[in-house]
Amino acid sequence: MKIIKNVPVYLLALLFLVFGSNFFLHFINVPFPTGDAGAFMSVIYKTDFLRVVKTLEVVLAILLIVKPTRALAQLLIAPISVNILLYEVLIAHQPGIGIILVALNAISIYVLKEKYLGIVSK
Question: pTM value?
């Protein structure tokens, strides 16, 4: 039962680790988007914004795997998941992996909801 509870967080960590690392190592060929999505990506590439985000993705993915830092990493990676979904829906007009990331993040946070009670209760 305990392993099943950890599946969403490990999948989330795997996705962020693979795609975050791919930015630096280029082992998966990802075509550059066109139109508004391409213009947006051009800006975040030129300003090194994406390099910072991808570094955070890799670091936070590792922290998700390590149990003592998991709850904090889930809270820190949630905005990245939401921003990926917003990019896909509002700019690229092609929802995709963002839906999976947000769902896995929500499930992972729910599984550890006891850890967050101090944040939401008096």
Answer: 0.92
DSSP state of 67: G
Taking only the tens place, the pLDDT of each residue in 84-120 is 999 999 999 999 999 999 999 999 999 999 999 888 8
State how far the Cα of 107 lies from the Cα of 94, in Å rounded to an integer. 23
- What does the longest C-alpha to C-alpha distance in the chain come to? 48
Long-range contacts for 3-11 (Cβ within 8 Å, ≥24 apart)? 5/111, 6/111, 8/104, 8/107, 8/108, 8/111, 9/64, 9/70, 9/74, 9/104, 9/108, 9/111, 10/64, 10/65, 11/104
Amino acid type, 46: K
pLDDT digits (tens, 9 = 90+) for 75-85: 999 999 999 99
